[in-house]
Amino acid sequence: MISVLAVDAQPMQRFGFRMLLENTPDTRIVGEAETSAEAVRWTAELRPDVVLMGIRVPGADGIEATRRIVAAGGRSRILVLSTSEVDRYALAALRAGASGFLLKDTRPEELLAGIRAVAAGDAVIAPALARRLLDAFVRLDDDACEPVRKDPRLDSLTGREREILVAIGQGLTNGEIARRFTLSESTVKSHVGRVLAKIGARDRVQALILAYDLRLTRPV
């Protein structure tokens, strides 16, 4: 059973989340929060598996609340929901430590799939934003590519693990990585797990951000 905390300034929005989650066999809502301060406090007290985080909440916004929750070191995963497709919101949320970013008008089944994915340690990004988000990480001219930046976290990776990190940075799924390197998906999953552990990433989204920050890869 996946426990969820719903954070949103609008009571009707929270009511909608409650109705959806309480009528789904594998999810339950354990609390609601209206402000960023409440979100941080209730996450610490209730320790939900997933926090559904609205962007525009009273006090500090949902992105700052996400940053504070992640900094506290709890196990809760955060799925940010927004009414806007503005890329900077998605990028800021993911950099703050969110494990996913979806639009509020996503279909109920897609929201539930996102909750399950985030609870399982995976990451989810709204399809409409995925490509634009990749493009937002770097704005480099084709003939003026910056060199790879040095980082001690890369030193612990084997050659194959570094290739896997580059592939994650390109937004490839495990299946796509398996086909690229002629590996089984189970082998790729093991490689991905080791990469995340070595670089200290919570999930694939954080690994993707590192790959771009270090200039290991560019959008494909």
From TrEMBL:
Alphabetized UniProt keyword annotations: DNA-binding, Phosphoprotein, Transcription, Transcription regulation
Sorted alphabetically, which Gene3D superfamilies does this protein's record hold? 3.40.50.2300
User: Residue ranges of the Response regulatory domain?
Assistant: 3-119
Presence of the UniProt keyword Phosphoprotein in the record: yes
Supply the SMART domains for this chain.
Answer: HTH_LUXR, REC
- All copies of domain HTH luxR-type, residue ranges: 150-215
What InterPro entries does this protein map onto?
Answer: CheY-like_superfamily, NreC/VraR/RcsB-like_REC, Sig_transdc_resp-reg_C-effctor, Sig_transdc_resp-reg_receiver, Tscrpt_reg_LuxR_C, WalR-like
Q: What is this protein called?
A: Response regulator
